[in-house]
Structure formats: structure tokens, C-alpha cells
Amino acid sequence: MGGDPFAFLISQHERILSDLIAFASIPSVSADPAHRSDVEVAARWIAGHLATAGPFAVQILPSPGNPVVFAEWSGAPGAPSVLVYGHYDVQPPDPLDKWLSDPFRAVERSGRLHGRGVSDDKGPLLNPIAAARAVFATNSRLPVNVKFILEGEEEIGSPNLEAFIAENSALLAADFVISADGAMWRSSEPSLTIACRGLAALEIRVVGPRKDLHSGSCGGAVMNTLHAMAHLVDSLHTSDGRVAVEGFYDDVLDVPPAERAEISALPFDEPAYREELGVSELFGEPGFSTLERQWIRPTLDVNGMWGGYEGPGSKTVLPAEAGAKITCRLVPDQIPEDIIDKVVRHLLARPPHGVSIEVLPETHAARPYRIPSDHIGLRVAGSALEQVSGRKPIVVRNGGTIPVCEVFKRVMGMETVFFSFSTSDEDFHAPNEFIRISSLHDGLEAWVRYWKELAVVMR
Amino acid sequence: MGGDPFAFLISQHERILSDLIAFASIPSVSADPAHRSDVEVAARWIAGHLATAGPFAVQILPSPGNPVVFAEWSGAPGAPSVLVYGHYDVQPPDPLDKWLSDPFRAVERSGRLHGRGVSDDKGPLLNPIAAARAVFATNSRLPVNVKFILEGEEEIGSPNLEAFIAENSALLAADFVISADGAMWRSSEPSLTIACRGLAALEIRVVGPRKDLHSGSCGGAVMNTLHAMAHLVDSLHTSDGRVAVEGFYDDVLDVPPAERAEISALPFDEPAYREELGVSELFGEPGFSTLERQWIRPTLDVNGMWGGYEGPGSKTVLPAEAGAKITCRLVPDQIPEDIIDKVVRHLLARPPHGVSIEVLPETHAARPYRIPSDHIGLRVAGSALEQVSGRKPIVVRNGGTIPVCEVFKRVMGMETVFFSFSTSDEDFHAPNEFIRISSLHDGLEAWVRYWKELAVVMR
């Protein structure tokens, strides 16, 4: 029955691009309270967008933080059901002066659409909605039951999502989750992501004199908070690149030799990667390859550090305070709270002379996740990718963090298949974020094929 | 002949306060190019002010940077001549959010006038002008010949003043210099400052990947520029507080035991000082007291350090670049250029893996200065202070830097007497800078007595 959704999809190409440009014009920066109302606007925009794509029951559900957009179509009794996950919030656009165009007025340059959030996650998230629109338009029904859960706090670590999932598990129940967040490893070949790292975050302050001091009058006689901060930060790693925090690696599971062999067999051109990043040397934990360092080993990184005068010229102060933001990426079986405890203990064991260390409360935490390699949703995803690209996808991992997948597993027993059509080089979290427009189009077709094949193999 | 200048001075108290409020409302921040025109306005304001104080020949002389205001009255042939030094530029007001009132709308609170520059150096600099006005008004002439040199680049290290002095030495010639910049050591007793430290400044960057990277995708496999910066900064000191740069102390002259004994005999309440600063412990180079660390020992301090995300919430980046501003305070016979070379060599000898160190050109440099203890200008200054306060001034040093005094000495052979009525606790270079209004009034009388006695003892 019905028309050809793939022909219809071609006719959608212009529309998905203009929809994405509109969606990306909303600065839904969840990290910045100043953008709170923009986040609400984005939630309403995507809810309205879902409602026009087909006969979905759409709800905007409150949370203690940003709302969750939920949609459901259950018109295929007996067919499998999937829960599509995505997020409508975006990273802050800083540093603004590095953008070649306005981060919130997405523009196309050479086959790429540039704008904050186009790749993470607004573009990939529009894919399944446009796919559903095409199938509804041509067949009046979807081959599987589809629910959507679109959150607005992914970029701040989904602090309220776990409680939301626990409270709404009946509403959310499905055979498994398909995440529109995540990314293809690279643009040259399709890939299936089987794991992501967890996250533990903390923010610290070194608090010194009650006010900034003149570095002439007082310099040399009082601990400089910046020197103390540098000492603390430097103490977190050994000079050869290991994390120096006691017990940091205690709970890291050994990855089986066979899996390490698979990673080392992947086509990875290290000199080209170095060139792409613009560094003269890659550097990290001894005993592991670059891909292993990114995928199967935990890290500790300072993401921001500040204190004193940063403006033009000079200002000779001993700053009253210095600050740093730290995140760790975690692998099985590390627990965020335990890692934070260990880092805090490490810092407090090194009290600088005469100044104090303060640790700010931080709820940004997520456990690592790994889907079983033989999961049916993963297998069908691979098949859909192969149909679209004509190539067998390679199996990779994601060094980043998608907090929700481990939560779906722990709270509801649902596994998550990553099925995103962004690519990891698209500068999400950096200036000039972009998405390849061709990937968006591939994604449309892949989602349709995924649902179609799933209905067959799971029947 | 003539009237009583001291009675006249009393009548000037309101006027000097309103003049200072007007002068301090001009945001003449030399460090910030955005304030360039304000610096010009301040130069014209003070030139106009000098012209109204008496029959001075006033000139605004160009320099490659900010103009120099020069004034001269030579109506006392045979009498000694002095060159009064001061500066009309001010420090940046950052951090603005720490000010209790607008930094550029000076307001009185509890006998103190609060505003950027009121203590450093606009208030002290108005003192000799108001003193001259009083003496001219009551006696038609000054007892000594007086010249003024008021510069606009002190807060950025007087980069153009040395060449200016060399080119204008005939114009500037005098028996010695009296500096209206500097500060009393404390408010509880008068003091004579006999030395100040020099300054060497540099700014560094750690330059890593060509753009900010996602700390999930890339974390663990690339040197984090903030880790590299922390390591470099931490390497600059030993854990016990010495500067770890090779050769840093090579040219430091030993201070004679008698002078160290004088310093240790000064009334200095270390617990009270700790309390005043708000630190639980003082800290610095082993083997030296707090006052020695501030006055006769060199230092290296980071005045600003930054990189990555500093905003609310978190942004998981590996920043492409990190920066730091560093200054050293120098003592005889350290040379700024030599110290910079040594610090740069130290840094470049520690190349971080895969990222590079850049050193930015920096002209902020000054040599240390010391006036001979038996200089007649110093002796008369002490006498004037004693007449005003009824107490014999104590002999102290200044941990800060007044670049011009060493230049006057080296280029023109003139010594400099520090004769300022600010106090070192008045938060210059910090939020809520203030000057004690009573100090301003004491200063008026002291300048008149200084010139008067100088005419007698040097005749």
C-alpha cells in the first residue's frame, strides 16, 4: 500500500534545511540562565513541529529544570516500539569572536550549514521527525510504534532526566531507545557507536586575600592564588600523562584483548588526525593508542581556568580568587560521585599556604554506557546504514557523554542504539559548528529504512 | 612679606576635595586603548589646573604615547630648584562588580574619598599644585624654583618616559626630583621611603589545537593547553616559595646586616597584617621576613591566567589557547631585560607535548631605585613631615615600582625623594581605592613646609 516515501523524502530536502535554520535561530543555551526563556521557546517550537509531522500525541512535560517534549504514535499494535531520544538545548556559543558568522543565524557554506546546535543536536533530531512526516504522507502509518523524548538539559548533564524517566516509565516504555544524539565517527564511512564515556564535573576556587592586592606592595609575602591554582591543577596529572589522583583508575574494567585488537584494526591515520587538530604531537596516557585514550580510558581535563587581569596591557594584582572547571570522562565501572570524591580528596590533601580551596556543588554527572554487541536494534541500524551508504559500517565508540543511555538502561532496562547523522568533526562545542547537508539527507532515508526493517525482523 | 599660607591652606580644604572629585571622574586608564581619549582629557584638565594655580609656564608635550604635562616657575634665581613628578593616568577599574560605588564618581564615606586614582596618583598630585596656589596667593612667589612633570603612562610602566627625559633634559634640569607618587607605609605614622623595586613583565600563551576541541571526543589524546599552562606556571616557583628560574637571584645585592636590622626593628604587627589581608598564613621566600620579602627581595607573580570557559555552568572544551600575564619585582642590581630572558629561557626549556609556548612583546620594564640615605632632599622631607605630624618619620621602602626615579638618576643624575600623601593600604590597583581626606590636608601643609625649609638649608 501507499506511495514511495523515498521519492517524497527527496522533495523534503529544502524543507528540512529551512526547518533547521529556523530551529537553530533559537539560542536555547541551557548552561546560561539568561537563555532560560529561549530554551522554553525551543521546546515549544519542536513540540509544534512534531505535531505537524503526523498524528502524534504531543505533550510538553514540566521538569524541575527545562521541559521535556514527548510525542507518541501507537498505531501499529503488535509491531515493535521505539523511543527516539534527542535534545533541543545547545552549548554556549563562546568564544563569540571566533565565529565567522552569527552562531544563531545558520548559513550554508560549501555544502555545510554553520550555526550553534545544527550538528548537536538540532539537525540530527529533525531527521526522524522529517522521516516520520514522509512515511505518514505516503503510507498514512509508520511500520513501528514511535515515541519521542526530547530534553532541554543535555548540555548541562541532564540533571533532571533520571527522575523524569523514573516517574514516567510507563509513558516512555518501548523495546529500546534510538538516540538521534551521538555522531558518526567520521564522514568517510558509516559507523555504529557501541559505547560512550561517563562524566564527572566539579568547579573549584582558590580563595585568598579578602581583596585583590597590589603585587608590588604585597608580592612575595602572600601566596598568589594563581600560583596555588597552577600547583593544584598541575598535581592532577603525572608528567607522562596519567591522572595522578589516588584510586582514579581503580574501577576501570580491563577491555578484552579482542576488543583492543578491533580498535587497532580500524582505519585511523594518526598523522592526518594530528594535522586536522593542528598539534605537533598527540599526547596522553602511556600504554594506550590515541583511539583507546579517547574511547576506553578515563580522563581528567580542565575546561576553564581563570583569575586576575585578562584585559589589554597589564594590571599588577595578586588576585583574591582563582577558579577552575574540571570534568572527567569515565569508563565502566567508574562512578561519577566516587571519582569526584577522589579528586576533591586529592585537592584538599594539598592545602596551599594561607589560602583555601573551595569546591562548588556540581550536579553534572553521568555514568558510562555500552550496548551489547549483538543487540537487535544495533544490528538493524547497521543494516539500514549499509543500505543507504552501500558500505558495511565500522564499529566505534564515542569519547563523549550521552548521559541518558545509561539511565534508560539502569532505570527501565532499555538499551540505546546511537543513530545520529552528525559527524564527530563538526565542531559541536566549538566555534563554527556545522553539519554536512548531505548527512542530513542520508539520515532521512536511513531512519525510514531502519523502522521498515525493524518491523520485519522483530515481528 | 606676605600673608600666611597655612591659614590660606585651611580655606582650600573644600576646594582640593572638589578638584580631586572632578579630576578622578576622568577615566584615564592608560592600559586600555579604549580610554585613550580620556587620557588626553585628563592631561588637558591637569594642565589647565596648573595654569590657574600660579604664574606657571604650562606645556602639553607630545610623546609617542600619552602626552607629558610640563610646568615651570623660575622666579627664584639663586634658590634651589626642584622637579615635581606625578602621573595623571590610573589603573583599570576591573573587577567592576567589586566596587561599592562607581569608580569614576568619587564619593566620600567615613573620611575617605573612594574612586579609581584618588590615591594613585591624582590626589597626591593635586597636593603640590594646591600648595603652590596657596603660597602664590599669600606671597606672590615660591621660596624655590618649581617644575612639574606629570606623565600619563605610569600604570603601563612609563614606556616612553625615558626617551622623553633624555630628549628634554635641559627643560627638566633641577637639583633633584620630588615624587608625588609613592605612598606612606601606613596611616599610623609618617614614613620616608628610600627605595622601590623594579619591574619586568611578560605575557605568555600556550597555543594548542587550531580550535577548541570537545573534551569528550578528544580528551585524553591531546595536551590540554590549561594543563600545560598550569605546569609552566607551577614550575616558576619551588614549593617553599623561592623563584625557581635559573639565575633569577644572581644579581641580587646583599643588603647589609645593619639595614636588615633596621627593617626588623620597625613596628610591624604580623598577625594584624595577616588579619588585614584576610589570609591565614603569610608565605614567601624562606630566610626572609615579610617586610624583607616585600622590600629587599625580588618576586615573580602571575597577575592573570586564563583559558577555556569561565561562564555559568559548564562547557566541555579543550581550549585552543591559554594565557598568563607575569610580572617580576626587581631589586638592585637586577636588570629587567636580563630577568625576562631568564624567565623565557626557563619556559622554553619546558616545551609541553604537542603545543607551543609564545612570548608576547612587552615593554613594561623598570629598574629598581634607591636614594642615598644622606641626601639633603630626603633630610628636609623628613623635617617637613616631622613639623606636620609632630613625629619623627620612620625609614621604609616601597615594594612597588615607580619607574621614573631610576631613569632620572641614570639619565640626568638626579635623585628622587618620595613625598606622597597616599597610604599603602588605600587599595590602589584594587576595587574601592580610596584616599584619607586628612592625609590630603596634611600633604598641603607638608609641601609648603618642604619648599620653605629647602630654600633655607640649600641657600
In short:
Chain A is an alpha+beta fold.
Give structural notes.
The structure is a homodimer of 459-residue chains. The first copy, chain A, is of the alpha+beta class and 459 residues long. Chain A folds into two domains: 5-196 and 369-457, Aminopeptidase (3-Layer(aba) Sandwich), CATH 3.40.630; 198-252 and 298-366, Alpha-Beta Plaits, CATH 3.30.70.360. In chain A, 36% of the residues lie in helices and 21% in strands. In chain A, the strands form five sheets. The first copy, chain A, has a six-stranded mixed beta sheet with strand order 1-2-6-3-7-18, with helices on both faces. In chain A, strands 9, 11, 13, 14 and 15 form a five-stranded antiparallel beta sheet that branches. In chain A, a hairpin with a 2-residue loop joins β4 and β5. In chain A, α1 (5-24) packs across α13 and α11 packs across α13. The first copy, chain A, starts with a helix and ends with a helix. Chains A and B meet through β9, β10, α6, α9 and β11 of A and β9, β10, α6, α9 and β11 of B.
Supply the key terms.
homodimer, 459 residues, alpha+beta, Aminopeptidase, Alpha-Beta Plaits, 6-stranded mixed beta sheet, 13 helices, 21% strand, globular
- Strand content of chain A is 15-25%
**Count of individual domains of chain A:** 2
Sum up the overall morphology of chain A in one term: globular
Per DSSP, the total helix count of chain A is 13
Name the CATH class of the largest domain in chain A.
Alpha Beta
Any low-confidence stretches of chain A, pLDDT <50, length ≥5? none
Specify the helix fraction band of chain A: 25-40%
**Of all protein chain pairs, which has the greatest interface, and how many residues does each chain bring to it?**
A-B, 103 and 102 residues
Which homologous superfamily in CATH is the superfamily of the largest domain in chain A?
A: Zn peptidases
Spatial strand sequence of the major β-sheet of chain A: 1-2-6-3-7-18
User: Oligomer, anyone?
Assistant: homodimer
CATH fold name of the largest domain in chain A: Aminopeptidase
Tell me what the CATH architecture of the largest domain in chain A is: 3-Layer(aba) Sandwich
Query: How would a crystallographer describe the biggest sheet of chain A?
Result: 6 strands, mixed
User: Measured on Cα atoms, how large is the radius of gyration of chain A?
Assistant: 23 Å
Residue-averaged pLDDT of chain A, rounded?
95
Number of strands of chain A: 19
